[in-house]
Amino acid sequence: MLCPGDKTFYCGAGNRLNMYYSNNSTKSSTDPMNVNVTGSYSFYFCYKDSPRALSVSASSDSMSVDACQKLATAGGYTWFGTEYGRECWMGNSLAAGTANATASDCNMACSGMPGQLCGGPSRLSLYRKIAT
């Protein structure tokens, strides 16, 4: 039976259905993603947080990249990062000995905004203030 809305497609019939399969492997748009720019900060990299990279912290069950950015802006910090889905870390310099992690290590959704990535276990999704 032809579909009533588009006569170029079949839509099954009484006690019948047409099944379609797609082997398209694109990611779902609901997968959490890094925020490239928020306020006056831009995404820097996924960083190892051992030793502790930034010294000032806040945490919330409603954490998001935007919420952490607002805290960093209010405090006048150059750097901020989200970690473990609900932590926000801020500071004006990175501690000695900190290093890049692989991007896939920052894989936890933000507790307050599941469409955004908020670091991972001992991993910071790190943002730096854009020079003006």
UniProtKB/TrEMBL annotation:
<keyword id="KW-0677">Repeat</keyword>
<feature type="domain" description="WSC">
    <location>
        <begin position="40"/>
        <end position="130"/>
    </location>
</feature>
<dbReference type="InterPro" id="IPR051589">
    <property type="entry name" value="Sialate-O-sulfotransferase"/>
</dbReference>
<dbReference type="InterPro" id="IPR002889">
    <property type="entry name" value="WSC_carb-bd"/>
</dbReference>
<dbReference type="Pfam" id="PF01822">
    <property type="entry name" value="WSC"/>
</dbReference>
<protein>
    <submittedName>
        <fullName>WSC-domain-containing protein</fullName>
    </submittedName>
</protein>
